[in-house]
Structure to design on (289 residues):
């Protein structure tokens, strides 16, 4: 890199979006991509004298919080993380927060929610997260149809899934970069880029069953037995990835007060507003893979 040439351009914002997103990745790979690379990016920003550094993190950084409502700055390194990915993203945030102040005086951390297809066509490039619910139900369709009572499924009534359409997330990132240039925030700031309410686990299941046209007698959420047992059973019977099911059962409530102050109250639509597009994108993907 020709730092002298780049420095003469007087960049206003360094947007760091690189990282490894893989809940099953090895610890060494996660740390290389999500922590070491963060330090490299910050060094470059400092060398180029860029005043504002915007980082895209993830809500997984707060997945192990013991709080009922997780604030954007909250990090918990006492309780174990469920995987190397979430742990590395949390440590990456810690690097950003504690970076020695020089020319890069404003550091903005964005904890992105679970990204899903856009609100226009619902287009997706792979199956992960909530889309696994539809795949799982399709695999056990006969079992679901044969159950004479409510369908027992893993989940907690209080859990809300922080789903964010990818186009709305992109718009939010742009607005935060504009905010940095206009308002010139100093120090470290963190935000949850998540919907105000989020989707309940029950509503996800109901929506997936409806999309697959699978008749059932209702859904009852089960979280009283061992989570490890629930994960093993769900993985064995429905091939629902254990790593992702853990998140579905344990997402905390994310505080979005600071986010709404900058982006507005309605920046992120709730699931019911794009539900049809969500499933249309899924159908298009599974039909062509």
């Amino acid at each position: 890199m020709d730092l002298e040439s780049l420095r003469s351009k007087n960049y206003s914002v360094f947007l760091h979006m690189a990282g490894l997103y893989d809940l099953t990745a090895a610890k060494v790979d996660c740390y290389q991509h999500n922590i070491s690379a963060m330090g490299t990016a910050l060094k470059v920003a400092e060398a180029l004298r860029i005043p504002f550094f915007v980082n895209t993190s993830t809500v997984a950084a707060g997945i192990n919080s013991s709080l009922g409502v997780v604030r954007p700055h909250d990090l918990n390194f006492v309780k174990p993380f469920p995987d190397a990915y979430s742990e590395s993203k949390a440590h990456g945030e810690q690097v950003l927060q504690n970076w020695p102040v020089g020319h890069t005086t404003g550091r903005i951390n964005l904890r992105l929610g679970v990204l899903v297809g856009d609100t226009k066509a619902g287009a997706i490039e792979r199956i992960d997260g909530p889309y696994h619910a539809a795949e799982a139900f399709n695999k056990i369709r006969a079992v679901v149809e044969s159950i004479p009572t409510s369908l027992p499924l893993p989940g907690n009534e209080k859990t809300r899934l922080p789903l964010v359409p990818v186009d709305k997330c992109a718009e939010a990132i742009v607005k935060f970069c504009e905010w940095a240039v206009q308002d010139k925030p100093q120090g470290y700031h963190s935000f949850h880029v998540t919907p105000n309410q989020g989707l309940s686990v029950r509503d996800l299941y109901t929506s997936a069953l409806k999309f697959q046209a699978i008749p059932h007698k209702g859904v009852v959420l089960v979280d009283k037995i061992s989570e490890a047992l629930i994960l093993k059973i769900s993985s064995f019977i429905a091939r629902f990835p254990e790593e992702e099911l853990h998140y579905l059962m344990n997402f905390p409530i994310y505080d979005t007060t600071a986010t709404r102050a900058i982006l507005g109250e309605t920046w992120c639509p709730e699931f019911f507003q794009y539900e049809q597009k969500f499933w249309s994108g899924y159908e298009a993907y599974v039909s062509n893979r």
